[in-house]
Write a structure and sequence with these properties.
By secondary structure, the chain is an alpha+beta fold. It contains 16 helices and 16 strands. It has four domains: 250 residues, BirA Bifunctional Protein, domain 2; 117 residues, no CATH class; 56 residues, no CATH class; 33 residues, no CATH class. Strands 1, 2, 5, 6, 7, 8, 9, 10 and 11 form a nine-stranded mixed beta sheet that branches. Helix 3 packs parallel to helix 4. The chain binds adenosine-5'-triphosphate and magnesium ion (3 copies). The site of adenosine-5'-triphosphate (ATP) has 16 residues, from strand 5, strand 10, strand 11 and helix 7.
């Protein structure tokens, strides 16, 4: 089953269970100051759970573009090293807003996975919330009992509060979760340890694919839990992981979600994917990052030097450097992957196709500009490294990390990554101190300026005078100070 069909079948399945299929929210979050990027399917429904708004439909399903590179969910360091964490991924989800609850959510998840997708039952495990004494939370016996009807009890494992209890914040809606995991271990290992003995649900080859959250409580400021008047279901399933399970692969990158990107990259680099682990990591990182960058730009976030724009710039520069160092890509190359994404997502996210030329142009320009300074920056690091080796030093000075940032455009996390590859670390406090000094300097300079054009803060009264770019981005909109 190819990935397009996998996605379609998910939506069709929930449509057949009377769900309204809705669009993904944009990847970039302009309305919620607490969240830069959408990181879960439920983000766009937050107000329904908080009771601030009434849902138009009480059953909804979709595929949501998510990005997990900042804040509570930051998977960036995992990407390319493991086989199932991405920066940008699709989260398939179904929701009940005060309608069905645990019984249906569990039965439908199982029906979809085993009957529609045909996943082998003896490769699936589920977890239910095992209670938390400290927080006086009970085991989710109800979920356990529903699962018991459909799966052998030795495949139902208890999970901790960290993994199996969801809370929006210190107060507000919360409740237990039940996860579904796929066992991708080798047969010999399964033979050796299985059933309840598989206590460690963090085994790297037992991968979480679906999380079913049952919102049934409302946590008060006092810490006390009250039952919610209407109970909700919020589920999220990693689309790329699901494709891996259905296509019987052991890595998301071996599914047709990634193979076209990987083929083009290996061809361009003149290497064979799978032949060298360091090159493979570079290829995986780039094929992951291009998706995040392309969708962020499509959804209105251009790379820039601050806030969300800088997150995107960092991801892009990270990809450029992986290509430069390991695959010998000395010219812009990431933008050439965009047409593959356009084909892959034409059915589901046509906004990428609509902005293809623009997205390619932005990426190419970003790449060119970083490639202009990258080589010299890397040479600088090399000379520092030999210097440090001769002195027996291990920590790159904050001043130098700042120079790499300021003169060569190296984000701190990139310098840290290169340092790690060489058994070194970076004095990030020293870096931050240098950054503060520079901010103080530019503030003093800005105070001297008398020009018409300013990027305004919240306090000033402004008149909108036009966009600097095609894409609306608050930081790029030009205002005239009145
Ligand atoms: P994990 O424990 O693997 O990091 P999670 O518990 O953080 O996953 P959830 O917040 O429960 O993930 O999100 C719902 C689903 O989204 C997960 O079950 C998983 O299939 C998928 N998912 C989560 N993070 C990623 C990621 N970085 N890349 C790809 N899929 C992901
Ligand atoms: Mg996670
Ligand atoms: Mg998890
Ligand atoms: Mg989870």
């Amino acid at each position: 089953m190819d990935s397009k069909l996998v996605r379609r079948k998910f939506l069709e399945f929930f449509e057949s269970k009377q769900h309204q299929i809705v669009d993904s929210a944009p990847l970039v979050n302009k309305d919620d100051p607490t969240l830069m990027f959408t990181n879960a399917g439920m983000n766009q429904f937050k107000d329904y759970f908080l009771g601030n708004k009434k849902a138009q439909y009480n059953r909804v399903a979709d595929t949501q573009k998510c990005l997990r590179v900042s804040g509570k969910h930051n998977d960036l360091e995992e990407v390319g090293l493991d086989t199932y964490h991405h920066t940008m991924f699709e989260m398939l989800g179904n929701w009940s807003f005060g309608d069905y609850f645990k019984k249906e959510a569990i039965a439908w998840a199982w029906e979809l996975l085993t009957e529609v997708y045909g996943l082998p039952k003896d490769r699936l495990y589920v977890t239910v919330f095992g209670g938390d004494e400290g927080d006086k939370l009970d085991i989710d016996q109800e979920a356990y009992d529903f699962w018991k009807e459909i799966i052998a009890e030795d495949r139902i494992l208890y999970g901790s509060k960290k993994d199996n209890f969801w809370e929006m914040g210190d107060t507000g809606p919360c409740g237990p979760c039940s996860e579904i995991h796929i066992d991708l271990r080798e047969p010999e290992e399964i033979e050796r340890v299985s059933g309840k003995d598989l206590v460690n649900q963090d085994h790297p080859a037992v991968v979480e694919i679906w999380n079913l959250v049952f919102m049934e409580f409302n946590r008060q400021a006092s810490g006390e839990l009250k039952n919610l008047p209407a109970k909700h279901v919020d589920t999220g399933m990693g689309f790329e992981r699901l494709c891996m399970a259905i296509q019987n692969k052991s890595s998301n990158y071996d599914t047709d979600v990634f193979t076209p990107l990987i083929s083009l990259l290996s061809e361009k680099a003149g290497i064979k994917y799978g032949a060298d682990s360091q090159n493979d990591i570079a290829i995986r990182v780039i094929s992951d990052h291009v998706r995040a960058i392309a969708f962020a730009i499509t959804d209105g976030q251009l790379p820039s030097n601050t806030g969300a724009g800088y997150v995107i710039r960092r991801i892009l520069r990270r990809a450029v450097r992986y290509g430069f160092t390991f695959l010998d890509f000395k010219k812009p190359f990431i933008y050439e992957l965009v047409p593959i994404l356009v084909d892959q997502f034409d059915e589901v996210f046509p906004e990428l196709k609509a902005q293809k030329d623009f997205v390619m142009k932005v990426i190419e320009q970003e790449e060119s500009s970083f490639l202009r300074t990258l080589e010299n920056g890397l040479k600088k690091i090399d000379s520092v490294k030999s210097d440090m080796t001769s002195k027996g030093e291990k920590v790159i000075d904050g001043k130098l990390a700042f120079e790499l940032y300021d003169t060569f455009g190296f984000p701190l996390d990139l310098t840290s990554l290169i340092a790690r590859e060489n058994g070194l670390s970076v004095d990030s406090e020293g870096f931050n101190a240098e950054m503060q000094k520079q901010k103080a300097r530019s503030k003093a300079d800005a105070a001297k300026e008398t020009g018409d054009w300013n990027i305004v803060g919240d306090q000033e009264s402004v008149e909108f005078v036009g966009y600097e770019h095609l894409v609306a981005d608050a930081r790029l909109v030009k205002y005239r100070t009145i």
